[in-house]
Amino acid sequence: MMLSIEIFGKPTRFYCNLSNFTVIYTEACQLNSNTLVQGGKVARKSFAIQLSVGFAEVFMGIFTLSVALVADGIQAFADAGVSLIIWIGLRISRRGPDGKFHFGYYRAETFSSIIAAFFMASLGGIVLYSSYVELLNPTPIANAEIAMIVALLATTVSVVLLFYKNRAAKKYTSLALKTDASNSIKDVLTSLTALIGIALSKYFNIYQADAIAGIVISLFVFTMVYSIIKEASLVLMDACECSEVVTGVKDVARSFKQVKQVHGLRMRKLGPYIIGDLHVVVDGDLTVREAGKIAHEIEERLRKEFDEVIEIKVIMDPDEPVAASDGGQ
Ligand SMILES: [Zn+2]
């Protein structure tokens, strides 16, 4: 999937806010076109493989009465679903501003991750509840060997995908793929948990082990829900953990010879981007035309230098005292 994006007339990259969950999402976060194509291929392949494994696990889990195996399968579906929802959100967020949404659709990205979190929490709840019911009335696993083979297969697939993605991430120097690879570590752990649970149930007759493994897997799911919601809430609350950009923006503004002082810089996230405003103090005797030209030049430079900054308003202050309502800082 190629994404050629033009925002305010310049090609712009998408930033990956959500650090843990990328499969299809990975595609949308790539900048370099080779990275985009290759990264997209890797992501699509692993997405399809993961889905098939998840399907096999749910099917065989029901067949062998192993709640842990079903849990691991649902966990894989949850992953895939989240990637899909966030990907749709990213697509919507690419739409330009219109008569109703004057500031564009950027927040669709954040909005979609919250929906994804609710979706994931529901699946986590189902896994937790069914594991709990099983814990109260533990039953031996039927055909435990088959269940173990499926769990072992799922673990192996996740390990192979992990190495594959790590290698691809190095080869194409893709940060998004690297993040995606770290997601595979979680898949390895959950499949391994299911395997151990089934083995304990089979060889040590600890029938609760299967249910406990299911509960542990649901905790993995809830951990992901937590980090999605945390990340999205920060963006919704206009948090800007962007000290590098703050310093950079100030430096660029100060580098203009007419600028005597910079203050009142505020920035916030808008979906995957950053917008904001800052005050610059200039000679009070400049004409409006001259001041406007400088402001425009600073804005242009800032947008050019910082990919994630899509809009920044420069407010001109004359170098003699100004009104008390001035931006401060
Ligand atoms: Zn000011």
CATH class wording of the largest domain: Mainly Alpha
Give the CA-based shape.
elongated
- Taking strands numbered 1, 2, ... along the chain, how are they ordered across the largest sheet? 3-4-5
SSE topology string: EEHHHHHHHHEEHE
Radius of gyration: 25 Å
The N- and C-terminal alpha carbons lie at a distance of: 44 Å
Strand tally is 5
The number of distinct structural domains comes to 2
Query: What proportion of the residues form beta strands (DSSP E)?
Result: 5-15%
Name the hetero compounds present: zinc ion
Rounded mean pLDDT score = 79
Largest sheet: 3 strands, mixed
CATH architecture of the largest domain: Up-down Bundle
CATH overall fold name of the largest domain: Alpha-lytic protease prodomain-like
Low-confidence stretches: 1-34
Structural class designation:
mainly alpha
Annotated CATH homologous superfamily of the largest domain:
Cation efflux protein transmembrane domain
Total count of helical runs of at least 4 residues:
9
Binned, the helix content reads 55-70%
